[in-house]
Design brief:
This protein is an alpha/beta fold and 386 residues long. The chain folds into two domains: 129 residues, NAD(P)-binding Rossmann-like Domain (Rossmann fold), CATH 3.40.50.720; 209 residues, 2-Layer Sandwich (Dihydrodipicolinate Reductase, domain 2). The chain has eleven helices and 17 strands. A nine-stranded mixed sheet has the order 16-15-14-13-7-12-11-8-17. Strands 3-2-1-4-5-6 form a six-stranded parallel sheet, with helices on both faces. β1, α1 and β2 form a beta-alpha-beta unit. α5 packs antiparallel against α10. The chain binds nicotinamide-adenine-dinucleotide.
Length: 386
């Protein structure tokens, strides 16, 4: 297939800005895709962060501290924006108004009001493609899990659990950053940071959230700043949500958890679904392993483990004898966005839609209210969605 250029601008040249830029450099790894992406412009208030792009990406022709200049650049077709959460609302709105396609970052607005303001702008610009990032569903194990659940072979769902766990915050001496302060990260704390990753697949499985009961923990309340002085760390470290979910009118318990302090866990994203006729589980802790159980009444109840071949949603040159990793998932997500931008229907998983971010904000806002009141809070999505 002949390749068509997609010229990217990146706003926010930190951890994720660099990750996405290198995924785009590797786009040639994909086969059968049409986009020929290149990063032509970058913006960050910190010139040192932009220097890495200028030194390593020869395609970058504009580096500016003022993102409005990037938005005025007619060479830029699409923008990836990865900045602290308190900046999402204004920047996302400005990007959409500039008629640039937007791949945004979660939580897609620091709170529900910011999310609603962005969604208003999205609906005023229906011609602009707007999506939010979430890469873990592209792991072959997540894809296989979804296929199994969607096929109905698990039977009536008994329960499900999904989570995203980190552990580096167990170290009380870890230097604070903007993600650990509610002013810049938001009142959701770890839910704003990690929560959309956890709800993406449950939403795509067609499940609705009926009620939520939340337990939120702020365990480490002070951390050292870069100069060594102790400062307030006022975000939730861990969030445990007990959700009543529904699937085609039948309710079941769904446990959702996001943790920054889960000892021993390094970027562990997982989901487990248990039904009357079978069960399936996948965790990035064992990134190529799918666990399944098949049951017929009276038969043995035996979990099986299967090593999955490298099999991606968007084909690549990697052979099936190899295995899939984090940067592969990022590349797949970039393919989903870029190919949709060029008018191709998404293969299996589209990136998170603005409407899905709205649902996640509703859930996280209800979780805050639940923790505050000590009671479950109703969301009633099943009745709202019919
Ligand atoms: N998809 C994922 O797996 C994933 C992982 C980590 C973070 N994130 C999300 O990505 C976003 C950024 O997180 P990060 O880890 O890259 O943060 P980071 O702190 O590493 O990078 C943020 C960058 O934004 C820049 N910035 C701040 N104000 C700016 C402005 N006015 N104009 C331009 N640049 C500005 C900072 O200088 C910094 O370089 C957040 O929304 C976060 O939730 C997503």
């Amino acid at each position: 297939m002949a390749r068509r250029p997609v010229r990217w601008g990146i706003i926010g040249c930190g951890l994720m800005g660099r990750e996405i830029a290198t995924a785009l450099l590797r786009y040639v790894h994909l086969t059968g895709t049409e986009a020929a992406p290149e990063v032509v412009a970058v913006s960050d208030i910190n010139p040192a962060s932009m220097r890495w792009f200028e030194e390593n990406l020869p395609s970058v022709r504009q580096a500016t501290r003022d993102y409005h200049e990037l938005l005025a650049n007619p060479e830029v077709d699409a923008v990836y924006c990865a900045v602290p959460h308190h900046l999402h609302q204004q920047m996302y709105i400005d990007i959409i108004r500039a008629n640039k396609a937007l791949l945004a970052e979660k939580p897609f607005g620091i709170d529900e009001a910011a999310n609603q303001a962005i969604l208003q702008e999205v609906s005023s610009h229906p011609q602009v493609l707007v999506r939010c990032s979430s890469e873990f569903p592209y792991f072959p194990g997540a894809v296989a899990l979804a296929e199994r659940v969607r096929s109905g072979q698990l039977g009536r769902i008994i329960e499900a659990e999904a989570g995203f766990w980190h552990a580096s915050d167990l170290d009380p001496n870890k230097v604070i950053n903007w993600k650990r302060q509610s002013l810049t990260n938001g009142a959701y704390g770890c839910l704003g940071d990690l929560g959309l990753h956890v709800v993406h697949v449950p939403m795509r499985l067609g499940w609705h959230f009926e009620t939520v009961y939340a337990q939120l923990s702020n365990i480490v309340r002070e951390r050292p700043s870069a100069d060594g002085a102790m400062v307030l760390c006022d975000t939730w470290d861990n969030a445990d949500l007990a959700v009543t979910a529904s699937d085609q009118g039948q309710t079941f318990p769904l446990r959702l958890s996001t943790k920054r302090i889960a000892p021993g866990q390094q970027n562990t994203w997982f989901i487990r679904v248990v039904g009357m006729n079978g069960a399936v589980a996948f965790s990035t802790k064992f990134p190529k392993t799918l666990e399944t159980l098949t049951y017929t009444p009276g038969s043995a109840q035996a979990w099986q483990q299967q090593d999955l071949p490298y099999r991606s949603v968007y084909p690549t040159i990697t052979g099936p004898i190899f295995e899939f990793g984090f940067s592969d998932a990022i590349l797949q997500m970039m393919a989903a966005f870029s190919e949709e931008f060029l008018g191709h229907p998404p293969a299996l998983w589209a990136c998170v839609t603005p409407e899905e971010t709205r649902r996640s904000h509703r859930l996280f806002t209800a979780a805050l209210a639940s923790h505050e009141s000590g009671c479950a809070v109703a969301l009633d999505e099943g009745s709202a969605h019919g």
